[in-house]
Amino acid sequence: MEARARHHHHHLRQLRAALLRRGHPIPALPAAHPHPDRAHLSAIRAAAASAPRLALAACACLRRAGLPPPGPRALPALLRSAARCDGAGAYVGGAHAVAVRVGALGDGFVGTALVGAYVACGRAADARRVFDGMLVRDVVAWGVMLDSYCQIQNYEAALLLFAEMKRSGVVPDQLILATVLSACGHIRHFRTGKAIHSYMLVSAILINAHLSSALINLYASCAKMDMAEKLYNGMLRKDLVSSTAMVFGYAKNGKVEVARSIFDGMPEKDVVSWSAMISGYAESNQPNEALSLFSDMQENGIMPDDVTVLSAISACANLGSLDKAIWIHSFTENNGLTKTLRVCNALIDMFAKCGDITLALNIFNGIPHKNVITWTSMIAAFAMHGDGKSALVLFEQMKKEGVEPNKVTFLNLLYACCHAGLVHEGRSMFRCMVQEYMIEPNHEHYGCMVDLLGRAKLLQEAVDLIESMHLGPNVAIWGSLLAACWMHGDLKLGAFAAKEVLELDPNHDGASVLLSKIYAKSGSWNDAEEVRGVMKLHGVSKETGSSWMVLNDPNHEFAAGGGKHPESDKILLKLDGKRKCSATQREPCDFFQPGGKLPMRWYPQDYLQKAPMMNMAMRANPASGRRLAAASSV
């Protein structure tokens, strides 16, 4: 026994020497220390200042030296150190066992520290079990548990816990109120957030800068910019958080000019501010401005994070420029951001929309642990490029890997079948979704099936499907049927579908134009003239389609039937010469053959989904790109 004690004291002396070399001395501790818990606390604090794992080693050495286990004073410090170690879950679990052994779980400080430790290592369920078992739960304990739900983005659970806290009689402090307001903003619970604001006013709670920022963020997230602006203008000192919230709110609600004005007036900007403004440009279909600001951000010495990069990737995808896509991919690789799964998923989508399916596939194959979004993104990429068979093969591989598909996965599979004309496979995917995975189809799924059947001239089957829908058909579904009827010459059914579209959307230009053409084609000139008259009366006009291409960096836009391009005369002259030259050489272009390469870069996904017949040559502008295939084919 004496030899064993000497051995443990030797380890303790070694630990003390190691800590002393690192500049964190602890006193010499005899085996019979008068205050063993203080001894543990002293050792843990000194060791934790150097490295969290050393704190655990210090505690173990003290135990071997004969001291009892750490008590209520030392356990919170031990738990904080355990949560900072690699593989923290096991260490926190061990500290939890020590707390149970010494009967310290009844102590409020220990319980709160244990909840916080489990939260820090990502074990929210264990944190909640400890929290529910606590005899005394003060405002700090409630705050830690609320914060844990917000960290894992379970905002609904955070609001339910806050309601439970109110029922228990615990009065929330400013930090808790700010946390709950943030949760309301994330899930756009305007009524709950407004009720909390009213509670703060009635209870005469001091609304400090932190709470003001949380309220501004809430109202901005819920598109209540008038309320957010009123709070913002009433602040004596507009801090970084509140200004960023205003930038985010205005940008999110399409007022990017106002957002940019606030952004430019901010004396200091952090990565969140820059990200909010870049995201605003990307979501407002201003990709060039987004990428320009992304470059300015780095010139100002601010390093983009994965959130910023996601907005830049979205801008590149929207722009359709492969050169810029390769540039942003290189940036993510050089800065270690390709280790983030959501960045890799976005890169797959970007390369697909910029026309390079090979690079998209390379990114996909390089991801070691793929989630459902990864698989769905690659399936969507094949769908964009009209490669339905590859999309279906990938789906089978996805099932073998044990990844369960969701609604979006099946939507892209149906699009893939639609673009490739795979009717049997499309029916099979629809049945698989409903019967095997119990996924309720929505309007988009039905619209895809109607489009698929309509293109295959299975008009009666498309009508039967519409009649069997559990929810009422919308404009897109009737529009798909209308386009198919016009394509295959079923004027009677087409007129019926057009009327259904116009009943739901009287100002729908595409349906009005097609209905007029259907009447004209069937010889009903009076009806055709009446439709044209109604269009004129309501100010409905067919939007001009446009396309663009990237050549030596600038974007060149061309409008149907117009001389929008500054060099349109030269282009028309050149095309006229080419047309005469090719009159005697009628060989088909290789890129229109099966497996041929596309000569241009484009790809807005929603336009591809609605107008795949045009997907070899043009990218529609955002306004016309959202129109139905029926309108686009006129």
Automatic annotation (TrEMBL):
This is Pentatricopeptide repeat-containing protein. PPR repeats lie at residues 138-172, 239-269, 270-304, 371-405. PROSITE patterns: PPR. The keyword Transit peptide applies. Belongs to the PPR family. PCMP-H subfamily. It comes from Panicum miliaceum (Proso millet). InterPro entries: E_motif, PPR_At4g14850-like_plant, PPR_rpt, TPR-like_helical_dom_sf. The lineage of its organism: Eukaryota, Viridiplantae, Streptophyta, Embryophyta, Tracheophyta. The keyword ATP-binding does not apply.
